[in-house]
Write a structure and sequence with these properties.
Helix content: 40-55%
Strand order of the largest sheet: 3-2-1-4-6-5
Structural class: alpha+beta
Number of helices: 14
Largest sheet: 6 strands, mixed
Distance between the termini: 67 Å
Length: about 475
C-alpha cells in the first residue's frame, strides 16, 4: 500500500513540505491506516500532524469509546489530538434532516473550525478505492444527469485550505493488509455490516460481483471518476458561457427567460447543463422532488410546435412558453386589479409599472407606444386602469367595428402568462381607450372638442 500511496500523493501533489495536516480519524481501519501512514511520512516532509475525531453519539458508549481509542493511540504515537462530541438528534429536529446528513453537517462544521484554529493547509480523509466504486454504483442507480455521474473528488477547497483523499488509489483489502503488517490497531463499527443502508448493501452484495469480473475494479472506478470530472468541468464552463449569452435574468433572481431558437442552437449536452444551471440559479438549493421527469417535460415543451404552454416545478416555480420565448418565474401570474385615475394623478401597478394622467392644450396626439392622448370631451372621467375581463372588445384606429382583446393579444404575440395582468385604460363608462403598448382608440372624432387634451403615460423598467 505504501508505495502506491506514495506515488499517488506525488502525482497529485497533495502534500508539500512543512505543511499542516489535519486527519479525520473515526477509529476504523481506513482512518487509522491513514493516520499511521502520515505519521511515518511526518519526518520525511516535516509535517505538522493533528488528528481529529468526532463522537456522533449514535451508538451510546461505543461511539464515545471510539473517540477515546483514537485519543489514546495518538498519545502513544506522539500525535496531537482534538476531539468533540455532537448532538445529532437535536440537530435533526432543528433542521428537519436525516441522521446521516445531520452527522455529516456537524462533523464538517467541527473540521472547518479546526482548519481555521490550526491554520491548516489540508484535511486528509480516508475514503478508499472501494468507497469510490460503491459511490459510482450508487450514482448509476439513482441519477440520469451525466453531470451528476461523478465519484468522490480527489480534492476540493475546504475552509482556507483543501480536503485531500490519499487512499482513493487503493482498495479496502490493501488497507487491511497494511494494518496487519504494521500492527495498526482499529475498531470495527457494527453498523457498517447492516445491509439496511444502501451503501452497505452495495458493499456486501453488489461490489463483489463487479470484482469477480474485474479484480481491479476500484482502479477502473477511480479513472472513470477522474475522467468524468475533467470532462464535466469543461462542459460546465461551456454551459456557463451559453447561459451568459442566451439567458436573461430578471430583477431579484426570481425570473429568467430565453429565446427558444437561440437556446436550441447549442448542442444538446450544453442545453441539458444550461437547464440545470437555470434551476440552480433560481432555487439556490434544489428541492428533493425535482427529478429527471421535469427535464424530460422541459425538452418536450421546448421541441414541440406550440404557441403557449406551462409547466409546474416544485416550490411554486413555473415555466411559461409563449411563442418563441421561455420564461421561468416563481408564483402565480398575478391577481386582477382595478384603479381609478384622475388628471394630475399617477398609479403604480403591481408589476412596478406606473401610469400617469395629465391635461394640456396640446392637441397633437402622441405616437409613442407608451403614451395616449385624446380630447377630454370624448371621455368620461375618472379613467379606469384595469386588467382584462371576459368579452372585452375595443374599436381601434383604422378598423371598422371592434375586435376582441383576446384576439389582439394573439395577433401581437403577447405571452400567455402576461395577458391576465396587462393594463387596459377605459373611461368611466367602460369604453376601452388604450390597450397599453398595443392598440389605441381614436375616441369620437365626430364630436366637437374642447381644446383640452388628456395625456396618459406609461413607464416601466421592462418594455411590455
Amino acid at each position: 500500500m505504501k508505495a502506491t500511496v506514495d506515488s499517488f500523493i506525488e502525482s497529485q501533489q497533495f502534500l508539500q513540505e512543512n505543511c499542516t495536516v489535519l486527519v479525520a480519524v473515526s477509529g476504523g481501519a481506513d482512518s487509522m491506516a491513514l493516520l499511521h501512514y502520515l505519521k511515518e511520512l511526518k519526518k520525511e516532509k516535516n509535517l505538522t500532524l493533528i488528528a481529529l475525531s468526532v463522537d456522533h453519539g449514535l451508538r451510546g458508549n461505543e461511539s464515545l469509546e471510539d473517540l477515546q481509542f483514537v485519543q489514546s493511540t495518538c498519545q502513544e504515537w506522539g500525535i496531537e489530538f482534538s476531539g468533540t462530541s455532537v448532538d445529532v438528534t437535536s440537530y435533526k429536529k432543528k433542521h428537519g434532516c436525516g441522521t446521516q446528513q445531520a452527522a455529516r453537517s456537524l462533523r464538517y462544521d467541527f473540521f472547518e473550525q479546526q482548519m481555521s484554529l490550526y491554520e491548516a493547509d489540508v484535511l486528509a480523509l480516508a475514503h478508499h478505492g472501494d468507497d469510490q466504486a460503491e459511490t459510482l454504483i450508487m450514482r448509476l442507480m439513482r441519477v440520469t444527469n451525466p453531470a451528476a455521474f461523478q465519484g468522490i473528488p480527489l480534492e476540493r477547497v475546504f475552509g482556507k485550505g483543501r480536503i485531500i483523499r490519499p487512499l482513493l488509489c487503493v482498495e479496502k483489502q490493501a488497507i487491511l493488509e497494511y494494518c496487519k503488517i504494521n500492527q495498526v490497531p482499529f475498531r470495527d463499527d457494527p453498523s457498517n455490516a447492516d445491509p439496511v443502508y444502501t451503501r452497505n448493501y452495495i458493499r456486501l452484495n453488489i461490489l463483489p460481483l463487479f470484482k469477480e469480473q474485474n479484480p481491479k475494479f476500484h482502479r477502473h472506478a477511480q479513472l472513470l471518476s477522474q475522467r468524468a470530472t475533467e470532462d464535466e468541468a469543461f462542459l460546465h464552463t461551456q454551459a456557463n458561457s451559453m447561459v451568459e449569452n442566451v439567458v436573461k435574468k430578471g430583477i431579484g433572481g426570481r425570473e429568467v427567460s430565453f429565446e427558444i431558437n437561440e437556446f436550441s442552437g447549442y448542442p444538446i449536452a450544453l442545453q441539458r447543463r444550461a437547464f440545470h444551471l437555470i434551476l440552480n440559479y433560481l432555487y439556490r438549493k434544489a428541492p428533493n422532488d425535482l427529478s429527471y421527469i421535469h427535464e424530460e417535460q422541459f425538452f418536450d415543451i421546448l421541441n414541440r410546435e406550440m404557441a403557449n404552454a406551462r409547466l409546474d416545478f416544485p416550490e411554486g416555480l413555473r415555466l411559461y412558453r409563449s411563442y418563441g420565448t421561455v420564461t421561468f418565474r416563481f408564483g402565480q401570474a398575478g391577481e386582477p386589479y382595478t384603479f381609478e385615475l384622475s388628471p394630475g394623478e399617477s398609479i403604480t401597478l403591481p408589476d412596478g409599472g406606473e401610469i400617469s394622467l395629465s391635461t394640456s392644450s396640446d392637441n397633437q396626439k402622441s405616437e409613442s407606444a407608451h403614451a395616449f392622448a385624446c380630447d377630454i370631451a370624448h371621455v368620461s372621467l375618472p379613467l379606469i386602469i384595469r386588467t382584462r375581463q371576459p368579452g372585452d372588445r375595443m374599436s381601434c384606429k383604422g378598423m371598422e367595428g371592434s375586435k376582441k382583446i383576446k384576439d389582439i393579444f394573439i395577433d401581437q404575440k403577447v405571452p400567455a402568462d402576461k395577458r391576465d395582468t396587462w393594463p387596459i385604460v377605459t373611461d368611466h363608462t367602460g369604453r376601452i381607450l388604450w390597450l397599453v403598448g398595443l392598440k389605441k382608440s381614436e375616441g369620437k372624432p365626430s364630436e366637437v372638442g374642447t381644446g383640452e387634451w388628456l395625456h396618459v403615460h406609461y413607464k416601466n423598467n421592462e418594455t411590455l
